[in-house]
Amino acid sequence: MSSAPSAPAAAKFGEVIEASVERLTGQCHALYDAPPLGALVRAGDALFTLVDGVSTAALDPGRRVIARGAGLDSESDVYAEHPQLERLLRTDVTLTVVGHRDGGRIFRHLPPSPPRIHTFLYACSSGETAAFMEPADWTAILLSGALPAADDVIAAALRQAAPCFPDPRAFLMSACRLIAAQLPADAARLAAIMRRLPLDEPGV
Asked: In terms of Cα–Cα distance, which of 55, 27, 31 is closest to 41?
């Protein structure tokens, strides 16, 4: 008798290199291997965060990256000619903390303490994403914070999460109603967030 297939597990991609209660910085284990903007990321077993930025730079901050493609036909040729680049560059993610798990319960507010440095980072599975993202009251942390691109991160997070639900459009509309309640005097900001969502696309 065969067992039912298990749900996809969260995928480890990096580890925490800077940490506070509100924000984390993570370094990816493989160059360019970062989750997209708005992806739900779990730090360790219990901390939930959203990707709010992705960057690639020199591993050594004192060594500036230089152009190497003169006379070459493609970017892949640059890496083929200079294989050491994989060891001289790093890809980092910045993460906004939006919740945590304690005793089996999910809380969509800041945790009491940050994770330890070198805590592993995991791109959440669709099941984890669905369990955390609804209700969407995690949006309050971003709406009230000072992150310059907060609205883009919220919209990206909702777009990333929508396919994890049986009715993506119902999830998005529920989230928009909750955001509207959090922005009672800012209809323009709500409208700007909604314009970033695929509310009119087929299948949504």
From this structure: 27
